[in-house]
Design brief:
Blueprint (H helix, E strand, L loop, with lengths): L8 H9 L8 H9 L4 E4 L8 H9 L3 E5 L3 H14 L6 E4 L5 H12 L5 E4 L1 H4 L2 H7 L4 E6 L19 H8 L4 E5 L4 H10 L6 E4 L7 E7 L3 H11 L4 E5 L3 H13 L4 E4 L5 H12 L5 E4 L12 E6 L6 H8 L9 E7 L1 H11 L4 H19 L4 H8 L12 H4 L4 E3 L1 H13 L6 H9 L4 H5 L16 H13 L4 E2 L7 E2 L2 H8 L5 E3 L7 H9 L9 H18 L3 H4 L2 H10 L4 H4 L7 H22 L15 H13 L4 H7 L4 H13 L7 H7 L2 H14 L5 H8 L6 H16 L1
Parallel strand pairs: 1-6, 1-7, 2-4, 2-5, 3-4, 5-6, 8-13, 9-11, 9-12, 10-11, 12-13
Antiparallel strand pairs: 14-17, 15-16
Helix pairs in contact: 2-3, 14-15, 15-21, 18-19, 19-21, 24-26, 24-28, 31-35, 33-35
């Protein structure tokens, strides 16, 4: 099924979606779909899966059938597609929420050839009247979203998904594209087999999300810490996950008492309340949703800025899926989990009484979670490894990379633990072993006369918490096993016994110390948005977007996403034509929503007397006073120095003359943002230390001689001299 279209895909992408380049595998996937081939797509949340079927739908003849699991998700995606087009008939959904008249309108648009995308739930697809109707429709292809729901091994198994292939056969075969964000090789094979597409072209994207910051924190004063975090990130959207409905309700109430706009979401609420709470979150009426894992799969909100886990989740697969809801627009996304081993013990208790095979699977999943929480290894490295992807370098954007744990040799302490387990005949749990080694005469210890053992108190210089940590890390290293049938009893297998005879090096890690408040806030801040945008204008544009969203009853991000607003606050577009050059703004969206935005920006630019990048042309004689103000304002907005120089028709050396004059006159300027882009930190420190410790004068010539012309350019030394005078002199 080749497409008779000469226009390039990039032009189509720009026209409809406002982007000038594809992400990752998107272009190859789209070409594969346009060629009529079955396609399997494994791409993390935020990677741009939807575009892989949205763009081909617009180009191919007929209507694509998008099979999606949740009504809320369908509505979001239909609204999004309509925002890209001037004709609302371009996308529809068909599900149980529609009345007869609405369904007839949908069918009419489809038969008229207006509708390029039809979203249906698997339950609606199986209805006989819908099957008979779809037999009359020219179907371009089928897209199965959240395809992991097909597999019994997937984390969101939906039995009705396994009936999709027979229904497709009955309606009429067409190419299939199956898409999911999380699938192990076993789940992937199950999806392809069930859909009869084992020969499909497979596209796997990296699970790495560079904009996500990962952190695991000790579970102390959690509610207080969460409140502090939200207050430090006022106005940002976030999701907080709890394991129980009771905790969801309690935490929501506490947040509201503390003047935080929050709502609960869990399966115990009636359907209309859940829908209303989710809509309030999408419409930015509330900042925070506190939820059980029931919340999320149907959420298509790109600007979720933080995902907090009050309780550690049951599996890393679930954890990755939930954290993936942060920063889907490529902006800031902080993923913070609070961890206590007591929570793991609680989850283990819940498994008691279940079939042994189920307990075994649950035990392995929990072991992976404990390993992730307690390990000193780069967090994304561990997550990628879990999905079978190798990441060679550290991320430098997680707590373990930014605040490395102290490692120490632990083989002697592990041997002590193993010998104690052996001595008590492998009949006791971790706390009991830890108390023996710490020398605590608890009632349990005394009732078994274990305080009389020679090994009792051998580790008395450390407390019970320390010995529990050693036991857990020995479990992770699989030197100790937990008995399945008597869950929690510590056992030794051959690996543990061999270790007693011939101990090898085992590096243990201390827990992070978060007692330093400033460090804590730094760690929680995560990655920030680019500092280049005009923050005042950005916030004004967000308020306008929210006002319009209320008027038309659509979520704000459907109008323009945050990266588009940020680009507007850098470029200052004042016409619809200029607006179409903003990232993520296509022609349809610019015409549909743009007028109020460009009018607002035009007024703002005039009132503030802003020189826009487009206005950076050669000027006549420069007014020195205006030039000084322009330079200071531009540096405050973190403009590149080359752009500032070009705006005023100056050479870079002339601009540095002006900046030196400003700094020498006593004004403090922060050019770190520019220095960090052009110079290694080590080189910056060398020059800074020269001026602080060795320089007898501020002479550039002396500095060049001392530091070496081959090592540093004159421009680099001038810039560092500006930084030095500004920081220490002003």
């Amino acid at each position: 099924m080749k497409v008779g279209i000469d226009v390039s895909l990039i032009e189509v992408l720009k026209k409809y979606f406002g982007f000038t380049s594809f992400k990752g595998n998107q272009e190859d996937i789209i070409k594969n779909v346009l060629d009529g081939k079955d396609t399997f797509v494994l791409m993390p949340t935020g990677g741009g899966k939807s575009l892989c079927y949205q763009l081909p739908s617009l180009l191919l003849e007929g209507t694509s059938i998008i099979i999606s699991p949740l009504i809320a998700l369908m509505k979001n995606q239909v609204d999004a597609m309509r925002s890209f087009s001037e004709d609302d008939g371009v996308a529809h959904f068909m599900n149980s929420s529609l009345n007869k008249a609405a369904i007839n309108r949908v069918k009419h648009d489809i038969m008229d050839g207006k509708t390029k995308l039809l979203y249906v739930a698997p339950e609606s697809l199986t209805k006989e009247e819908n099957i008979q109707f779809l037999k009359k429709v020219r179907i371009s292809f089928y897209a199965i979203d959240e395809a992991h729901c097909i597999s019994e091994w997937g984390h969101d198994f939906r039995p009705e998904y396994r009936r999709i292939r027979p229904i497709i056969n009955e309606i009429g075969p067409a190419p299939i594209i199956a898409l999911t964000a999380t699938a192990t090789p076993k789940v992937q094979h199950d999806i392809q087999k069930n859909l009869g597409m084992l020969d499909a072209s497979v596209f796997k994207s990296s699970f790495r999300r560079h904009n996500l910051y990962y952190e695991v924190r000790p579970k102390k004063n959690v509610t207080k810490e969460i409140i502090k975090y939200i207050r430090n990130n006022s106005g940002k959207s976030g999701i907080i996950y709890c394991l129980s409905r009771k905790k969801v309700e309690e935490l929501t109430e506490t947040l509201r008492v503390n003047n935080i706009k929050a709502l609960p979401y869990h399966a115990g609420l009636d359907s209309s309340t859940r829908t209303q709470n989710q809509d309030n979150f999408l419409m930015e009426e509330v900042d925070v949703i506190v939820a059980t894992i029931a919340f999320g799969m149907g959420i298509d909100k790109p600007d979720v800025r933080f995902v907090i886990h009050y309780d550690i989740p049951k599996s890393l697969e679930g954890y990755y899926q939930e954290t993936g809801r942060a920063g889907r627009d490529g902006g800031e996304g902080n993923c913070i989990a609070f961890y206590s081993y007591k929570d793991i013990l609680k989850l283990e208790k819940f498994m008691q009484g279940k079939p042994i095979s189920e307990q075994e699977i649950g035990k392995q999943l929990l072991l992976e979670t404990v390993s992730y929480a307690e390990s000193s290894v780069c967090r994304p490295k561990q997550l990628l490894n879990y999905f079978g992807e190798v990441m060679s370098e550290n991320c430098d954007n997680c707590d373990n990379c930014l605040h490395p744990k102290i490692l120490f040799e632990g083989k002697d302490d592990i041997v002590l633990v193993l010998k104690t387990i052996q001595l008590v005949k492998e009949k006791f749990k971790a706390d009991h072993i830890a108390n023996i080694l710490a020398g605590n005469k608890t009632s349990g210890i005394k009732s078994y006369s274990h305080h009389l053992l020679d090994i009792f108190g051998k580790g008395g210089n450390k407390d019970v918490n320390y010995w529990n940590m050693v036991i857990r890390q020995a479990l992770i290293a699989q030197l100790i096993q937990k008995d399945i049938e008597n869950y929690g009893l510590l056992k030794l297998d051959k690996k543990g016994l061999d270790f007693i005879e011939k101990p090898g090096s085992v590096m243990l890690s201390e827990n992070h110390d978060y007692s330093d408040t400033d460090a804590e806030e730094d760690a929680l801040s995560g990655p920030d948005r680019s500092g280049a945008a005009d923050e005042e204008l950005f916030n004004i544009l967000k308020n306008l977007r929210k006002k319009i969203s209320k008027q038309i009853n659509l979520p704000p991000f459907i109008i323009f996403q945050d990266p588009s607003l940020e680009d507007m606050a850098i470029q200052y577009p004042v016409t619809i034509e200029e607006l179409q050059n903003i990232t993520g703004v296509g022609a349809g969206k610019a015409r549909k929503y743009g007028a109020e935005f460009v009018d607002l920006i035009k007024t703002y630019v005039e009132e503030k007397e802003i020189i826009r990048p487009q206005d950076m042309v050669v000027k006549s004689v420069v007014n020195k006073s205006n030039l000084k103000v322009f330079i200071i304002q531009s540096i405050d907005r973190k403009m590149d120095l080359e752009d500032i120089a070009a705006a005023k028709n100056l050479e870079l050396s002339e601009l540095l003359d002006e900046i030196e004059a400003i700094v020498n006159a006593g004004t403090k300027l922060n050019i770190d943002y520019y220095l960090n882009n052009i110079m290694e930190k080590e080189h910056q420190e060398d020059i800074f230390n020269y001026f602080r410790e060795d320089a007898k004068t501020e002479s550039l010539e002396e500095a060049m001689n001392e530091l070496g012309e081959d090592n540093y350019s004159e421009e680099e030394i001038r810039l560092m001299r500006i930084k030095f005078i500004s920081e220490l002199g002003n």
